[in-house]
C-alpha cells in the first residue's frame, strides 16, 4: 500500500504566517514606542513638578514664565489682590485722572495694562504734565519701537523723579510686559509729584508672586507691595489747607465745622426758599452746590445745563462735575474730590465763608 507523502504548506498559508509575524513585530514596536512615550511623559511631568513653583490658588503660570533665563525673574499680581476694593478704587482714580488730563488729545484709557504698555499714553501724559516735548515717534507698532519709546519716556520720568527721592519701581520690560503693579507705581508717583487734583486711596497694598530661575529651577516668593500710604505722607509736598489739618488733628470738631457750613449755606439758599439740614445727603447730587455757586457769583444758572431732579448716578455725577466747572470759572482751584466720590466737604476749600460773606 502506497502512502502519499504529506504535501508541503501551501503558498497562501506561508504568506499568512509571514503576515502574522510582521504584525507581531509591528505591534511589539508600537507597544515599545507607546511605553517609551509614557516613560518620557512621566519623566517630563516629574521634572515639571520639581521645577514648577508653588503658586497661590487661582493663579496660572504662563509659558513665558517657564522659559526664563537663568537668574531672571517675573512678577505677577496675585488674583486676590486684583479683586481688592481699595486697589480697584486706586485704578479707577488713576484712569479718571489720565482721561481728564488727556481729554484734549482725545485719548480715552479704559484698561491700564492694555493702554499703557506701549508707551503712547505715558508719553502724552508726561508731556502734558511736564510741558516738555519728547523726541519719540508718535505711533509705533513693533515691539522694538515700543520699547524704544518706553525707554525715552522712562528716562525722562526717572530723571525728573529720582532727585526728589522717588524709588524707581518700574522698568521698560516691566511696563511692556503689562506688569500692572509697575504701571500703578509709575502713575501714582506722577500723580503725587505733579500734585494731581485727586485723592488717592490710602494704604493700598497688593500681593505679588515673584518667579525666579535659579540653577534651572523656578522658585517663587509672595511679596507684599505697598502702593500708597497715608494722605498726609502722599501729599506731604502739597499745600495743605485748614480743613486737612482739622481732619488730621481735631476730628472731634467736625460737627462744629459742619454746623458753621450749614449756617453759611442756608444764608444764601434761603433766598430760593431752600434749606439744608444735612450736608451728606443734600449736597450729594450737586443741585444745591450749583444753585449756591449761582447765588454766590450773582448769576442765574440755566436749568438745561444740569438735572434739577437727578434720578440716576450718572446724572448726579454730571451735576457735581458741572458745579466743579462753575467753581473753576469763578477763579477757584479744581476741587481735590472726584465727582463720583464727592462727599459732604467737596467744597470745603473752594466755597467757604472766608471768601463769601
TrEMBL record:
Calponin-homology (CH) domain boundaries: 88-195, 255-357
Gene Ontology CC: actin cytoskeleton; focal adhesion; lamellipodium; Z disc
CDD domains listed in its UniProt record: CH_PARVB_rpt1 (cd21336)
Pfam families the UniProt entry points to: CH
SUPFAM superfamilies in alphabetical order: Calponin-homology domain, CH-domain
GO biological process, one term: substrate adhesion-dependent cell spreading
GO molecular function, one term: actin binding
Keywords: Actin-binding, Cell adhesion, Cytoplasm, Cytoskeleton, Repeat
Subcellular location: Cytoplasm, Cytoskeleton; Cytoplasm, Myofibril, Sarcomere, Z line
Family: Belongs to the parvin family.
The name this protein goes by in its record: Beta-parvin isoform X2
Record gene name: parvb
Amino acid at each position: 500500500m502506497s502512502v502519499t507523502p504529506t504535501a508541503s504548506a501551501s503558498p497562501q498559508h506561508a504568506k499568512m504566517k509571514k503576515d502574522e509575524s510582521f504584525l507581531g513585530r509591528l505591534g511589539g514596536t508600537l507597544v515599545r514606542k507607546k511605553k517609551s512615550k509614557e516613560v518620557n511623559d512621566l519623566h517630563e511631568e516629574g521634572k515639571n513638578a520639581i521645577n514648577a513653583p508653588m503658586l497661590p490658588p487661582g493663579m496660572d503660570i504662563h509659558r513665558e514664565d517657564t522659559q526664563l533665563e537663568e537668574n531672571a525673574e517675573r512678577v505677577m499680581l496675585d488674583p486676590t489682590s486684583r479683586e481688592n476694593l481699595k486697589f480697584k478704587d486706586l485704578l479707577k482714580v488713576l484712569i479718571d485722572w489720565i482721561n481728564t488730563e488727556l481729554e484734549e488729545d482725545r485719548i480715552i484709557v479704559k484698561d491700564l495694562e492694555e493702554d499703557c504698555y506701549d508707551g503712547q499714553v505715558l508719553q502724552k501724559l508726561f508731556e502734558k504734565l511736564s510741558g516738555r516735548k519728547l523726541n519719540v515717534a508718535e505711533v509705533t507698532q513693533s515691539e522694538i519701537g515700543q520699547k524704544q519709546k518706553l525707554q525715552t519716556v522712562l528716562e525722562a520720568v526717572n530723571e525728573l523723579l529720582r532727585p526728589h527721592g522717588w524709588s524707581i519701581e518700574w522698568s521698560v520690560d516691566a511696563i511692556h510686559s503689562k506688569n500692572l503693579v509697575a504701571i500703578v507705581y509709575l502713575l501714582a508717583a506722577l500723580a503725587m509729584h505733579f500734585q494731581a487734583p485727586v485723592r488717592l486711596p490710602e494704604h493700598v497694598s497688593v500681593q505679588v508672586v515673584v518667579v525666579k530661575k535659579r540653577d534651572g529651577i523656578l522658585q517663587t516668593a509672595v511679596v507684599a507691595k505697598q502702593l500708597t500710604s497715608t494722605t498726609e505722607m502722599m501729599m506731604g509736598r502739597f499745600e495743605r489747607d485748614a480743613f486737612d489739618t482739622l481732619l488730621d488733628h481735631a476730628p472731634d470738631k467736625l460737627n462744629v465745622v459742619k454746623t458753621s457750613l450749614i449756617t453759611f449755606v442756608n444764608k444764601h439758599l434761603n433766598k430760593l426758599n431752600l434749606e439744608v439740614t444735612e450736608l451728606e445727603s443734600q449736597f450729594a447730587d450737586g443741585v444745591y452746590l450749583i444753585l449756591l455757586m449761582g447765588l454766590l457769583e450773582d448769576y442765574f444758572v440755566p436749568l438745561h445745563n444740569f438735572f434739577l431732579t437727578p434720578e440716576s448716578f450718572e446724572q448726579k455725577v454730571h451735576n457735581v462735575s458741572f458745579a466743579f466747572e462753575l467753581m473753576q470759572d469763578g477763579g477757584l482751584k479744581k476741587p481735590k474730590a472726584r465727582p463720583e466720590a464727592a462727599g459732604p466737604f467737596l467744597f470745603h476749600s473752594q466755597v467757604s465763608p472766608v471768601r463769601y460773606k
